[in-house]
Amino acid sequence: MLLDELDSVDWRSIPTPGLRMTRADRGRSEWRDLPSPRDGLFALAAAGSLPQVAAATSSLANSAVLWGHMGAVFPAAVVAAPFLLDIAERHDFAPARGAALTLLGDMMESLPIAGFDRTTAVDGRPTPLCCAVAVLVRQRREPVSELGRPGLSLIGNSDEHWRFEVREAVAAGNDTLALGVLGGRIPTPPPGGEIHRSGGTARLASVALEYPVDHETGEACLRLAGTSPSGPCAAGAVIHPARCGEVH
Ligand SMILES: [Zn+2]
User: Fold this and answer.
1) Do 61 and 74 contact (CB within 8 A), yes or no?
2) Residue 243 C-alpha to ligand 1 middle, in angstroms?
3) How far does residue 89's CA lie from ligand 1's centre (Å)?
4) In angstroms, what is the span from residue 69 Cα to ligand 1's centroid?
5) Distance 130 CA to ligand 1 centre (A)
6) What's the 28 CA to ligand 1 centre distance in angstroms?
7) Under 8 Å between Cβ of 84 and 104
8) Is 1 in a helix, a strand, or coil?
9) CA 113–ligand 1 middle distance (angstroms)
10) How far apart are CA 78 and CA 55, in angstroms?
11) What residues have CB less than 8 Å from 94, skipping those under 6 apart?
């Protein structure tokens, strides 16, 4: 089980912001390190009663993965997500499975802190934290879908954090047609996008599906309005939703 590997994670090596908090006993604010999620993950994996699930959930929602009061997510969430997926798939106590799914949903819906808002864990490119968690969720689409409505809801949530890998780009009037592979789902009306290529990031005003997606392969063709294929929209680039670039 993946949880066996939990103790091999060096949580302190993951970039995490300190949090400025007021200590009631001293009456002044000071910087504090966020607690490691290690104990909370073990506690959720071992939880066999509702109070134990609640305590483990609270611990994780106030740790270096999530800070619930702020609605903030941190880079360690991307490392913790596979462990939560394991708990969601394998725990024999339904409330613990549900709590793991809820925490994964919170990771995709919370905003990161500026300067701690990207991870290179997916493919070496600076990926928004929410989108990196979504990639991990989609990699387990089948088992997570079998977890009933909460599982299907999480998959739906992950699909909103779409990701498109450009394989080929051609000019089409003032636009670019990009052929590549889509993970997740492009909504309508066409959203804005953020395109990453080695060496830079650029904003796209509108990212629209040109043809229906091939659901077997994920191959798709997108129309990137007002852009040139000689610019950032060339082969090798990756596009995410623009809204996923927001920070606290
Ligand atoms: Zn996202």
Assistant:
1) no
2) 7
3) 23
4) 20
5) 4
6) 36
7) yes
8) coil
9) 14
10) 22
11) none
| Ligand 1 centroid – CA 52 distance (Å) | 30
Q: Where are the alpha helices (DSSP H) in the chain?
A: 38-46, 50-60, 76-90, 94-109, 129-138, 141-145, 148-159
Instruction: Order across the sheet with 193-197: list the strands.
Output: 200-204, 193-197, 238-241, 163-172, 175-183, 219-224, 207-209
Instruction: Count CB-CB contacts under 10 A for residue 231.
Output: 15
Decide: 238 and 165 in contact? Cβ < 8 Å: yes
Residues with CB under 5 A from ligand 1 (ion): 128, 130-131, 161, 244
Task: Convert 36-71 to b/e letters by CB count within 10 Å (16 or more is b).
Answer: bbbebbbbbbebeeeebbeebbebbbbbbbbbeeee
Give the distance (Å) from ligand 1 centre to CA of residue 105: 11
**Tokens at residue 112, please?**
């990161």
Domain ranges of the chain: 2-159, 163-245
Distance CA 210, CA 212 (A): 7
User: Can you give the pLDDT of all 248 residues of the chain as single tens digits?
Assistant: 567 788 999 999 999 988 877 776 777 787 888 999 999 999 999 999 999 999 999 999 999 999 998 999 999 999 999 999 999 999 999 999 999 999 999 999 999 999 999 999 888 888 999 999 999 999 999 999 999 999 999 999 999 999 999 999 999 999 999 999 999 999 999 999 999 887 678 899 999 999 989 988 999 999 999 887 677 677 889 999 999 999 99
- Ligand 1 mean position, distance from CA 149 (Å): 21
C-alpha distances in angstroms, 58 versus 51, 61, 122? 10, 5, 27
